[in-house]
Design a protein that fits this description.
mainly alpha, 2 domains, globular, 427 residues, Growth Hormone, Chain: A
Length: 427
């Protein structure tokens, strides 16, 4: 745990993780809050609630890259001021909007969601050295898992005791507070002078305007597409697993145990993420995703909640490490001047995966059995891992315009104590 203590001792790191955790708890619960408001407040169907959730998710997927480009060009505080204001207006107006207007407003709110996750990832890359980043991104992945465990559960508990409109206001207040806190901390988004070689704290690091912005064709190549494909595949698998385990427990008449199984999944992911971050070397990203897919497929053989806990613990153990490896890969492949756009693309890919995972597994469950849902989720992960592996084998020819320090991210192995030029974030 010495590595984690060193990460938390980096100036500004602990406050950043704490404030971003508040924002991410609220953001992960936004779909649940809107679903409960539509069903309980407007007294409409779950299908209608799904329409609002789909609009918000579509906005998140579309807005990630857009906000990332603005972060690269304008800096942190203008983006946070814009998104915090947009979230305040949206959540205050939720209780007074008719359903049709709520769908449109949810799309805009998704487009202008406070970018807590991308900003945290960029700041981690800027505030840590290359040797610290695996542990730092492991903490970020664990933070994400904890937010998914806490956020929706808190909203459900509040909805049982408070009016749906009050729950929406409370959630909006938490998002606004988290975004405002990050703006006040104003963490650097890249190392001083735009370098990727170590942490920086200067004004250029905070605004990002001094860093050179290379053409997209120089960094959005086969290797970055491989990483984004694996990011999408990972969340597609995890989103599908949530639905598959509920379907399995429903078929067994044990739905009341769903919260226990989900908790085991989350705890196993936290443990796996912490272990991964403490290692001196990492497996290739495609291997981690492949293992995640392989251990997920046989989970469908478990028909009782105790055995399902064992099965999903295996899935969870590889979840946070895979997410952490994907984030590390993006940070290493993206030049400093476009890291905001790159992390935005990663968030968009992961949002798309979550949106696709549940329908894919739902179809598999409907046409076969709950076990088919786990198989579909696992196979989706394996397909993404294989695609990532094939794309990551492409070796671009070094050119004079390649930013210094980035050819070291084009090898075939994961980051570790290897000679310069042999590290690969996609591996």
């Amino acid at each position: 745990m010495t590595g984690y203590r060193q990460i938390l001792a980096v100036p500004g790191m602990a406050p950043l993780l704490a404030v971003s955790f508040l924002a991410r708890i609220a953001i992960t619960a936004d779909v649940m809050a809107l679903t409960l408001y539509v069903v309980l407040g407007l007294e409409l169907s779950y299908a209608a609630a799904g329409g609002v959730a789909a609009a918000l998710t579509a906005g998140l997927a579309l807005g990630g890259s857009l906000l990332g480009r603005v972060l690269d060009r304008r800096g942190l505080r203008p983006v946070l001021l814009l998104t915090v204001a947009a979230q305040a207006v949206f959540w205050l107006s939720v209780p007074v909007l008719p359903y049709g207007a709520l769908v449109g407003a949810a799309l805009v709110a998704g487009l202008l969601m406070v970018p807590a996750q991308p900003v945290t990832r960029q700041a981690i890359a800027a505030m840590t050295t290359a040797r610290q980043r695996r542990a730092a991104f492991a903490l970020e992945a664990v933070q994400g898992e904890l937010s998914y465990m806490v956020g929706p559960a808190v909203v459900i508990l509040c909805a049982a005791r408070l009016p749906p409109g009050a729950v929406a206001w409370g959630l909006g207040a938490a998002i606004v507070a988290g975004g405002t806190g990050i703006a006040l901390l104003d963490p650097p988004l890249r190392a001083e002078g735009g370098s990727d070689l170590g942490p920086g704290t200067g004004a250029e690091a905070r605004t990002g305007r001094a860093a050179e912005r290379p053409p997209r064709r120089e960094w959005l190549g086969a290797r970055m597409i491989a990483v984004l494909t694996m990011a999408c595949g990972t969340t597609m698998l995890l989103g599908g697993v949530d639905l598959a385990l509920v379907a399995t427990l429903e078929a067994a008449g044990q739905v009341s145990w769903a919260s226990v199984v989900v908790a085991v999944l989350g705890v196993a992911s936290v443990v796996g993420g912490l272990i991964h971050g403490a290692l001196s070397r990492s497996l290739p990203t495609w291997s981690l995703l492949g293992l995640l897919g392989l251990v997920t497929i046989p989970a469908g053989l478990a028909h009782q909640w105790p055995w399902l806990c064992v099965a999903v613990a295996c899935t969870g153990f590889f979840a946070a490490p895979t997410l952490s490896a994907v984030t590390d890969a993006v940070s290493r492949l993206a030049p400093a001047g476009v890291r905001g756009e790159a992390t935005g693309l990663q968030s968009a890919a992961q949002s798309a995966g979550l949106a696709l995972g549940s329908p894919l597994v739902g179809v598999a469950v409907d046409v076969s059995a709950p076990a088919g849902g786990f198989a579909a989720a696992g196979l989706a992960g394996l397909a993404a891992a294989l695609t990532g592996r094939l794309l990551s084998r492409h070796r671009p020819s070094p050119g004079p315009s390649a930013p210094a320090g980035h050819q070291s991210g084009t090898g075939v192995r994961g980051p570790g104590p290897l000679p310069p030029g042999s590290r690969s974030p996609t591996a």
